[in-house]
Amino acid sequence: MQLSTSLRITCLAATMALAACSKNNEDNGAPTRDGMRPATPNSSKYISQILEYKPAPGQFVNENTFGSPAGAQKLIGGINGLLSLGSFGGYVITGFDHSIENKAGMDFGIYGNVILGNGTDWSEPGIIMVMQDLNGNGKPDDGEWYELAGNEYNAPGTIRNYRIIYYNPKKATATDVLWKDNQGKSGYVLSNTFHNQSYYPLFAPNQDSLVFEGTLLRNTLVKEYNPVYHSELFNNKPVGAGYADNGSKEYQDLTEAKGRGYNTLDISTAVNAKGEKVNLKYIDFIKVYTGQNCNGNLSNDPGNQDRLLGEVSTEVGGIVDLHL
Length: 324
Hints:
The chain is mostly beta strands.
């Protein structure tokens, strides 16, 4: 088709204008055509918003600092917060002011509350999920959650599609919380004398019961002789790399090198619900949930439970984009 000179000039001008708009949008951090929100010089490497905090029952839940919606907000903008997710399945969903790119090496780091040293070892591994903001509305409501497959993903003892229900005892003070799972087992989130408030989240949308689903990691609780304290102590051993609040080797190495450790995560390890590897150029949302269903208790006597340590509950202290 032949175009007149004036029409060709008009089309060329329109094309240049569109290119300029696209360039300006990229410079301003607006979504590109594939939905990615590129970082700008003003982007923060830390969490910019808490999209949802839904803990499972636990000893820190309903405490203002570590287990409340207000406490969750303290994760924004840094790495000095500390939020408890409660027992298995309890989670927090975070967002950033830009997309975190999938580049060579590790892409983001999660700070937790691992205890190391003097023969003590207390990890509370959390599983990480990621999502893209495909419709660009700033909410995790349109894409698929992908699990970052850590070293335990295919390990013996790992249970995928695990489902648990917690039942509200509906008492104002600390009371054991009953749970039942889809493996035919039941038990309690044990209360203790150190935390006297209700362990069932008072801000939960359902005040009768809470349901969580996900990947269950094997329990790693042991009782070992400690040569420093000359007595037997409970330890919750770390699992392999790829989890939050987990004293794995990379966490220990970073602790030695930087004085404070954190867990590093690679977006390239993402898998879909079938366990198939997916190729993500970027992510927009990060979800962390408690990966073990365990009390700090090895007693087989229902009338004489070990209640000193409470439940294993992942803690999150902050998340950082390692590329900024």
